[in-house]
Specification:
The protein is an alpha/beta fold. Helices cover 37% and strands 15% of the residues. It contains eleven helices and nine strands.
């Protein structure tokens, strides 16, 4: 049966640990022939820099051919339905399709009509499974696999973030102690611990901070007069983290400097944003290998 990656729930804990073993080997950035002769199609209905280039780098390193569908010039921009787009793509017999869409559920709907694996590269506010997997891998590697009970603050526009949604499911499953930190209008309804204040006490007690971008494009109305108003309360700055040398900082990107993370924090050795990017290619190589080759 064809395997898809629509949410992090599509992979068991054992499968994820096996993925991490492969990803660790792929960190050497060497070219391989694992997917030689295979073709992968990327369809991004939303802009992307990191995720698109990361998946394409992963495919290239495994020896696959890549077809990038230019959505602005595709028939979908002329009114073609998603079902017909899927049918036409399936007729080209790709070995996997990687899709990003502004509407939640689109990757799942396409997966029901395609014989090849579908990888969700982000759908609306719903899910971004490969990002959550690379975030967990970054945490796992930094702490040498001893992550159960580690305290993480997820800070920012949590309610509108598909990255947060996927991380909440995945990190919780691996035993991390999650606290959500956001203003009331950015806070989702859930049973996790919550704070509307990014206090020094919370930061000092934490092992990890995951900062999120404010998802302006998903807001139905302006919530803050300016992002600087938001930054006054929720930007991670140097003084806030000065008393916690063991802390690590993550961000899925793109980073709004001095809104999400200050310039000084971006340059801090505890900030692993670029490590996340490096790890992302390796994790996505492992995902492509698993879903296409089945190993």
């Amino acid at each position: 049966m064809t395997r898809h990656l629509i949410t992090t729930k599509d992979l068991s804990r054992a499968e994820i640990l096996a993925l991490f073993k492969d990803a660790r080997e792929f960190l050497d950035a060497k070219a391989r022939s694992t997917l030689e002769g295979k073709s992968i199609t990327t369809i991004f209905f939303e802009n992307s820099t990191r995720t698109l280039s990361s998946f394409e780098s992963a495919a290239n390193r495994l020896g696959a051919r890549i077809l990038r569908l230019d959505v602005s010039r595709s028939s979908s921009s002329k009114g073609e339905t998603l079902y017909d787009t899927a049918a036409n793509l399936a007729a080209m017999n790709p070995h996997a399709i990687i899709i990003r869409h502004s509407l939640s559920g689109v990757p799942y709907l396409l997966s029901r009509h395609l014989r090849c694996p579908v990888l969700n590269a982000g759908d609306g506010k719903h899910a971004h499974p490969s990002q959550a997997l690379l975030d967990l891998f970054t945490i796992f590697e930094h702490f040498g696999g001893e992550i159960c009970g580690k305290k993480i603050l997820i800070v920012g526009d949590i309610k509108n973030s598909r990255v947060a949604a996927s991380n909440i499911e995945l990190l919780g499953r691996f035993g991390l102690d999650i606290t959500l930190v956001a203003p009331p209008h950015f806070m989702p309804t859930c049973a996790l611990k919550k704070s509307h204040c990014l206090s020094p006490e919370l930061v000092d007690e934490s092992d990890i901070i995951m900062s999120l971008r404010t998802q302006i494009e998903r807001h139905q109305r302006a919530i803050y007069g300016s992002l600087k108003d938001y930054a006054n309360d929720f930007c991670i700055h140097e003084n806030l983290i000065k008393n916690n040398p063991k802390l690590i900082l993550l961000h899925p990107g793109p980073v709004h400097r001095n809104i999400d993370l200050s310039d000084a924090v971006m340059n801090d050795t505890r900030c692993l944003v670029l490590r996340q990017v490096e790890n992302g290619v390796a994790v996505r190589m492992a995902l492509l290998k698993k879903l296409i080759v089945g190993e």
